[in-house]
Specification:
Keywords: Signal. This is Lipoprotein. The protein is 44% helix and 0% strand.
Length: 123
């Protein structure tokens, strides 16, 4: 009987170990099945792009549809000036929303989301 228990325990331990060794699925920055964009904060549109509550002023006051439209709009710009104008307009809109709701005005973004569009200096 002790041998049977030992073998059963060994098989259970081996099975549990192989289950635990499996990856838990896509990483946090992989889009969920059927999602059209990466998870919040994971970025897109370039190696340094980020969005989400820690990067986008007013994120909590936006609907999921507005967040998606904001990401798509940022990714669509071809010039730095157009991008900066949109970012300023977006910040102004979020500041007005915050004021209407009695919330603090969101701080300016911590980084320049339009920086990848800046013209590179010629050598």
């Amino acid at each position: 009987m002790n041998t049977a228990r030992f073998i059963t325990a060994l098989l259970l331990a081996a099975g549990a170990g192989s289950v635990l060794a499996q990856p838990a699925g896509p990483g946090p920055c992989m889009a969920a099945s059927g999602a059209s964009a990466p998870a919040a904060g994971c970025g897109g549109g370039g190696p340094h792009a980020r969005w989400g509550k820690d990067f986008t002023p007013g994120w909590p006051m936006m609907t999921p549809e507005e967040r998606q439209a904001h990401r798509e709009r940022l990714a669509s710009f071809k010039t730095y000036e157009d991008c900066k104008a949109y970012v300023q307009q977006h910040h102004d809109e979020m500041a007005a929303r915050a004021k209407e709701r009695g919330r603090p005005v969101p701080a300016a973004p911590r980084r320049d989301a339009c920086a990848p569009l800046k013209a590179k200096p010629s050598k």
